[in-house]
């Protein structure tokens, strides 16, 4: 019998309106982002995330040494 109770709780949780943390709107963007700006942003993101992990993986054998 716990299923109807859980489904009622889930349904009531979906009905409640939460305070939005981010200011999300469905309006068109005020400033269009060009393809060049997107490419620069994606490159910076990949370098920032994949650069350090790639460094660690490339030097994994050096880190295994017990000097």
Automatic annotation (TrEMBL):
Keyword NADP applies: no
The Gene Ontology biological process annotation of the record reads: mitochondrial electron transport, cytochrome c to oxygen
Tell me which domain of life the UniProt entry assigns to the organism this sequence originates from.
Eukaryota
- Subcellular location(s) of the protein: Mitochondrion inner membrane
Where is it found, in Gene Ontology cellular component terms?
Answer: mitochondrial inner membrane; respiratory chain complex IV
Q: In which pathway does it act?
A: Energy metabolism; oxidative phosphorylation
Instruction: Extract the Pfam families matched here.
Output: COX8
Q: What is its main location?
A: mitochondrion
- Say which family it is in: Belongs to the cytochrome c oxidase VIII family.
* Protein name as annotated: Cytochrome c oxidase subunit 8B
- Origin organism is Oreochromis niloticus
- Provide the organism lineage as a comma list: Eukaryota, Metazoa, Chordata, Craniata, Vertebrata
